[in-house]
Write a structure and sequence with these properties.
Layout lengths: L2 H4 L7 H14 L8 H26 L4 H16 L4 H29 L5 H29 L8 H24 L8 H69 L5 H13 L8 H16 L3 E6 L9 H19 L8 E9 L2 E9 L25 H12 L3 E7 L2 E9 L2
Parallel strand pairs: 1-2
Antiparallel strand pairs: 2-3, 3-5, 4-5
Helix pairs in contact: 2-4, 2-5, 2-6, 3-4, 4-5, 5-6, 5-8, 7-8, 8-9, 8-10, 8-12, 10-11, 11-12
Length: 424
């Protein structure tokens, strides 16, 4: 092979830019290495040279391996630029591969079945149009969602085997088309399109399954943690109530015996009375949660008002009540801490209407939080990153467990959590 043949550019080399564009969409969200732009320039230059030279050398001896060669070179380029696990890069690269293949196969199907006689410029414009259309659809519908997911729960071993098998099968079909010269027969492309869709389905479906399993496990851990916290809170509240009651009577005796106008004793008495069970809703679990959260509100100078018929919650388990209202009030308290002292406000209402129980928790909110497509806050203010956002998911899980309608919305300067439970 002569020197000029090494740098020969053909129409097939357009694949280099197609796969790079797809990978930029799928891999671009991964953590970057230090001096990222410099790495992209240096690594990109080396990649482009190798992506031209190596396929030309390999194609001289073996046909049909052009796209596979460029694809694996591109994975090396992204590994050089991104500070991510090899599995993450491979997964995102496979996703990009299927998206690029789908775009290319749709173009070939349209071109060879209907537009064989159009000019080179028209072919180029058709290719670019279909590529932008398909890439755009997948980016806005799938890749943006994927960028928010943690890929640490990416795929099981079985899923990896399926994913790699589908990828090999796609490359194998391309190899056969090159060897037997049937690339211009349009009927070969529908099976390839189905393979690409299958590959995307495997890649995204297993990630969704693993993510949901991980969510369920974290919810289970959170509920277990809340169970222990509730038992501790219950013991502490009962202890404080018992001793506060005794201490209140002792202070009354001191007032009668010594100085009934003692201002200091009056202040102490006021504080002690605040620690007595301030809530008698008719539901012991709810009383414990409300008493504990009111103590926190007093410390944080948050106005906490409650109008609750605890008997209406007779259909709910004790731990579900503790988790639901504990998380709702924790979220409200966390937000109110950020507001000005004069604006800090939380209101809870539990009301039974016929065969429905209405629950509404509202708090002052100067700026409403961004919500996800699932209707949950995108960002959590809690410091525990391990259980980030799972408090609200736990509330939604409990509400749906009892067939309730769960909504989060804004109302003027209020952040509102509303639930409507059907009861028999």
């Amino acid at each position: 092979m002569g020197k000029l043949d090494l740098f020969k550019i053909t129409q097939a080399h357009g694949y280099i830019f197609q796969i790079l564009a797809a990978e930029a969409l799928c891999i671009g969200h991964l953590p970057k290495r230090k001096n990222y732009l410099l790495r992209v320039l240096a690594g990109g230059t080396i990649f482009l040279l190798l992506a031209v030279i190596l396929p030309n050398i390999i194609t001289y001896y073996v046909s049909g391996l052009f796209s596979a060669t460029v694809f694996f070179l591109s994975l090396g380029f992204w590994h050089f630029c991104c500070q991510a696990d090899t599995r993450e890069i491979l997964y995102s690269g496979m996703l990009a591969l299927f998206i690029q293949n789908l775009s290319s196969n749709v173009y070939n199907l349209v071109f060879y079945s209907m537009f064989r006689d159009i000019s080179i410029m028209s072919q180029f414009l058709l290719s670019v149009f279909l590529m932008v259309l398909i890439y755009g659809i997948f980016y806005f519908q799938i890749v943006k969602w994927l960028a928010r997911e943690s890929l640490e729960n990416m795929l099981s071993n079985v899923a990896w085997i399926w994913l790699i098998a589908v990828g090999i099968f796609v490359f194998f079909l391309h190899y056969l088309f090159w060897v037997y010269g049937i690339r211009e027969v349009w009927v070969v492309y529908p099976p390839l399109i189905l393979c690409d869709i299958l590959g995307l389905g495997v890649a995204l479906g297993f990630v969704e399954l693993r993510t949901r399993n991980a969510d369920n496990e974290k919810l289970r851990q959170l509920l277990e943690l809340e169970k222990k916290q509730f038992e501790m809170t219950k013991t502490n509240v009962e202890f404080v109530n018992r001793n506060a009651h005794d201490l209140k009577h002792y202070i009354h005796k001191l007032q009668r015996l010594e100085n009934p106008e003692n201002q200091e004793l009056e202040e102490v008495l006021t504080q002690v009375e605040a620690y007595e069970s301030a809530f008698q809703t008719g539901n012991a679990a709810l009383d414990i949660v409300l008493t504990q959260k009111k103590m926190v509100c007093q410390q944080e100078k948050i106005s906490f008002t409650c109008m609750a018929d605890g008997t209406a919650l007779h259909f709910m388990k004790t731990l579900d009540i503790a988790s639901l209202f504990g998380n709702a009030l924790d979220n409200a308290i966390e937000h109110e801490k950020k507001e000005k002292a004069e604006n800090r406000y939380i209101f809870l209402k539990i009301l039974r209407k016929g065969k429905m129980v209405s629950i509404r928790i509202e708090n002052y909110c100067e700026t409403f939080l961004e919500l996800s497509e699932a209707g949950l806050p995108v960002h959590s203010s809690k410091k525990d990153s391990e259980l980030h956002g799972y408090g609200t998911k736990s509330m939604q899980y409990i509400a749906e467990k009892y067939g309730a309608n769960f909504r989060i919305f804004s109302e003027k300067n209020l952040f509102v959590v509303s639930m409507l439970f059907p009861i028999e």
